[in-house]
Amino acid sequence: MRICPENNLLFLFFSVLNSLKESYEQALRRDDVKAIVLTGAKGKFSGGFDISAFGGIQDGTTPAPKRGYVSVEILSDTMEAARKPSVAAIDGLALGGGLEVAMACHARISTRTTQLGLPELQLGILPGFGGTQRLPRLVGLAKALEMMLTSKPVKGEEALSLGLVDAVVSPNELVDTARRWAIDMLERRKPWVSSLYKTDKLEPLPEAREILKFARAQTRRQAPNLKHPLLCIDAVEEGIVSGPVAGLWKEADVFDILVKSDTCRSLVHIFFAQRGTTKVPGVTDLGLKPRKIKNVAILGGGLMGSGIATALILSGYSVILKEVNNDFLQGGLGRVKANLQSRVKKGSMTQEKFDKTLSLLKGVLDYDSFRNVDMVIEAVIENISLKQQIFSDLEKYCPPHCILASNTSTIDLSLIGEKTKSQDRIIGAHFFSPAHVMPLLEIVRTQKTSPQAIVDLLDLGKKIKKTPVVVGNCTGFAVNRMFFPYTQAALLLVERGTDVYQIDKAITKFGMPMGPFRLCDLVGFGVAVATGTQFVMNFPERSYKSMLIPLMQEDKRAGETTRRGFYLYDNKRKASPDPELKKFIEKARDMAGVGIDPKLAKLSEKDILEMIFFPVVNETCRVLAEGIAVKAADLDIAGVMGMGFPPYRGGILFWADSLGSKYIFSRLSLWAKTYGGFFEPCPYMADKAAKGAPLSSSNNDSMQSRL
Ligand SMILES: NC(=O)c1ccc[n+]([C@@H]2O[C@H](COP(=O)([O-])OP(=O)(O)OC[C@H]3O[C@@H](n4cnc5c(N)ncnc54)[C@H](O)[C@@H]3O)[C@@H](O)[C@H]2O)c1
Ligand SMILES: *[C@@H]1O[C@H](CO)[C@@H](O)[C@H](O)[C@H]1NC(C)=O
Ligand SMILES: *[C@@H]1O[C@H](CO)[C@@H](O)[C@H](O)[C@H]1NC(C)=O
Ligand SMILES: *[C@@H]1O[C@H](CO)[C@@H](O)[C@H](O)[C@H]1NC(C)=O
Ligand SMILES: *[C@@H]1O[C@H](CO)[C@@H](O)[C@H](O)[C@H]1NC(C)=O
Ligand SMILES: CC(=O)N[C@H]1CO[C@H](CO)[C@@H](O)[C@@H]1O
């Protein structure tokens, strides 16, 4: 008999699991069924539990089944303990719940390309259908912990060598092999094994304890703010120490706690928010198909241009890189080559793939070959008349369908396109540095950009593995604008007595990759001042002007590159505090005409966090209210992907809403009275607070999703 639930078994719904149980019961009753093969439609197996059902479980609209219903009653008591053997025939994916179902079978056959893994920790939960118990018993404790803690899947051959699958065959032999295997088990020509009671792969107890201890220590170090990986290790340990049944119940207990945790809610929000950025009302709902883009030209082979070129050729696009002279051109091509070479060195790219990838890149000094490009991305220096010249040249040399994109970070796109007749195909493609590494792509549209151009760039963004977010054309676009008060608030605090290093410490403890001062050192004072000035010029009424960085520049400090900024850097670029910093701070304090505020001089970590992030929340509200972003969730993603805001806090507005608009409004209002207008809450926030409404519930947001 072949069980093949209706929806490809791609996602497991409770209804699918129920029908799985019924099918098993029927198969066990029927005399003509000797053994069972479990597979998905066309051999494809299962991507796991349906994540969209989480929201329902969390808010109580989907009744959660009773504890242990799936892991004990269905998978263990019905499937694994059955009087008839079952074999999983797996192609495509066996992830999360999908792999857990497969592990409850008595053998597994897969194809070479099948991906098998337990990525549940990525969603703030643990493998809840017996995965914490069966995986260690199939592949050993050390490997099982690694697979769960990193969420990384393995492919067929590796799964075979690990013992996770029993044979690897071609897709067309898959079901037949599984069928034969099941009969062989029945007739005792092959061992009939319950994964749950296997012990041969488990390390002896003393060694197992060491492995668990090491995993805990490593997890605490790498993810100090997360509890769920530790709880997952607890569930694994329970099974090793007290036996698999105790382990299953422990797993069920932990699952019930985790599925309702803030971490799970946040990570599920981020999961859907990331997939939702490509839904843009009035653009992606018009039935437009992305046009095929094959050849892309890039103007400027600097840091940005070469990074963008790298990202493109890595995804198979043919790229023309244009520079102004041969020296610069060789420099740009060299950078692309170096980017690829570092992959070869790390072992993530073969020499053959390197050669093939690099052959997609061509350097040029003129526009001759622009006749058949489908998209141009301009990444030359920020100079408006230069950019205007370039865009009118492009109009001459490129075919009429070609999209003209600019990576400008500061110049108004409408100005760039002013002197052309091609405003409908001018669009911003704002990458973050280094462009081949950072995952975010801001797609900047003007009022004239055509929906087709946006749809095309969204498609290209996804193909080069970026998360694209569509935004309007304000200063700083989404990310830089949302986060300009981050540094400014930190400078305001420091001038009034808060310690630089304490600020950075509080912010990194919260989960940011680095604090605002370490960040200034990293991007360099030149860039920090240039962007800061942009905001001071464009938003004078809500910018805090500090002289601290310019004073430090006079001392020839420029950040990490000069080994001196807010920190001192040794040969290995390790940062340490600089006792001399005081002198600059005192001077800046005098120039600002403020004194040390005793309260600010000894702020708690919580207060530091709030005084730095609530201004960011304020500006994010403004970005939303002005319609720069399509929806709140897009800004959550922009902050996570562009600034490294911790995803397990759900993004800036999701996090803010967990604290409540009223609370944030009242704190900002209080500080505004004491420390001035910089902290004044914006009208949008005032409105939400008055109504007790979430900040992410934008009024004119037509596509707010439930999650
Ligand atoms: N994941 C990242 O960190 C990351 C970073 C940068 C860019 N991107 C890009 O973002 C896009 C999404 O990336 P991805 O790698 O996460 O792949 P993906 O969107 O294909 O999803 C990953 C897995 O989630 C499953 N899935 C989707 N909806 C589900 C649901 N409702 N219930 C259960 N499972 C569901 C899919 O079947 C798939 O197995 C891709 O274009 C990727 O290149 C991702
Ligand atoms: C492209 O954008 C990045 C990120 O803002 C910026 O650092 C870089 O200067 C821009 N490059 C050009 C050439 O516009
Ligand atoms: C900007 O570009 C124009 C045109 O190429 C050039 O004449 C001008 O000198 C540039 N300005 C700066 C500040 O580099
Ligand atoms: C919030 O926005 C208002 C403008 O609406 C501005 O006056 C204020 O300075 C901003 N506050 C913060 C904390 O950024
Ligand atoms: C939302 O409303 C604001 C103010 O009413 C407006 O400026 C903005 O353009 C609107 N946004 C969208 C996406 O319609
Ligand atoms: C903030 C900003 O630069 N906005 C501009 C966006 O583009 C429109 C025209 O398309 C201008 O009117 C805005 O000034």
TrEMBL record:
<keyword id="KW-0443">Lipid metabolism</keyword>
<dbReference type="InterPro" id="IPR006180">
    <property type="entry name" value="3-OHacyl-CoA_DH_CS"/>
</dbReference>
<keyword id="KW-0456">Lyase</keyword>
<dbReference type="InterPro" id="IPR018376">
    <property type="entry name" value="Enoyl-CoA_hyd/isom_CS"/>
</dbReference>
<dbReference type="InterPro" id="IPR036291">
    <property type="entry name" value="NAD(P)-bd_dom_sf"/>
</dbReference>
<keyword id="KW-0520">NAD</keyword>
<dbReference type="InterPro" id="IPR006108">
    <property type="entry name" value="3HC_DH_C"/>
</dbReference>
<comment type="pathway">
    <text>Lipid metabolism; fatty acid beta-oxidation.</text>
</comment>
<dbReference type="GO" id="GO:0004165">
    <property type="term" value="F:delta(3)-delta(2)-enoyl-CoA isomerase activity"/>
</dbReference>
<dbReference type="InterPro" id="IPR008927">
    <property type="entry name" value="6-PGluconate_DH-like_C_sf"/>
</dbReference>
<dbReference type="InterPro" id="IPR001753">
    <property type="entry name" value="Enoyl-CoA_hydra/iso"/>
</dbReference>
<keyword id="KW-0511">Multifunctional enzyme</keyword>
<dbReference type="Pfam" id="PF02737">
    <property type="entry name" value="3HCDH_N"/>
</dbReference>
<dbReference type="InterPro" id="IPR029045">
    <property type="entry name" value="ClpP/crotonase-like_dom_sf"/>
</dbReference>
<keyword id="KW-0413">Isomerase</keyword>
<keyword id="KW-0732">Signal</keyword>
<dbReference type="GO" id="GO:0003857">
    <property type="term" value="F:(3S)-3-hydroxyacyl-CoA dehydrogenase (NAD+) activity"/>
</dbReference>
<dbReference type="GO" id="GO:0070403">
    <property type="term" value="F:NAD+ binding"/>
</dbReference>
<dbReference type="InterPro" id="IPR006176">
    <property type="entry name" value="3-OHacyl-CoA_DH_NAD-bd"/>
</dbReference>
<feature type="domain" description="3-hydroxyacyl-CoA dehydrogenase C-terminal">
    <location>
        <begin position="476"/>
        <end position="569"/>
    </location>
</feature>
<feature type="signal peptide">
    <location>
        <begin position="1"/>
        <end position="19"/>
    </location>
</feature>
<comment type="similarity">
    <text>Belongs to the enoyl-CoA hydratase/isomerase family.</text>
</comment>
<keyword id="KW-0576">Peroxisome</keyword>
<keyword id="KW-0560">Oxidoreductase</keyword>
<dbReference type="GO" id="GO:0008692">
    <property type="term" value="F:3-hydroxybutyryl-CoA epimerase activity"/>
</dbReference>
<dbReference type="GO" id="GO:0006635">
    <property type="term" value="P:fatty acid beta-oxidation"/>
</dbReference>
<protein>
    <submittedName>
        <fullName>Dehydrogenase</fullName>
    </submittedName>
</protein>
<feature type="domain" description="3-hydroxyacyl-CoA dehydrogenase NAD binding">
    <location>
        <begin position="295"/>
        <end position="473"/>
    </location>
</feature>
<keyword id="KW-0276">Fatty acid metabolism</keyword>
<dbReference type="GO" id="GO:0004300">
    <property type="term" value="F:enoyl-CoA hydratase activity"/>
</dbReference>
<dbReference type="Pfam" id="PF00725">
    <property type="entry name" value="3HCDH"/>
</dbReference>
<dbReference type="GO" id="GO:0005777">
    <property type="term" value="C:peroxisome"/>
</dbReference>
<dbReference type="Pfam" id="PF00378">
    <property type="entry name" value="ECH_1"/>
</dbReference>
<comment type="similarity">
    <text>In the central section; belongs to the 3-hydroxyacyl-CoA dehydrogenase family.</text>
</comment>
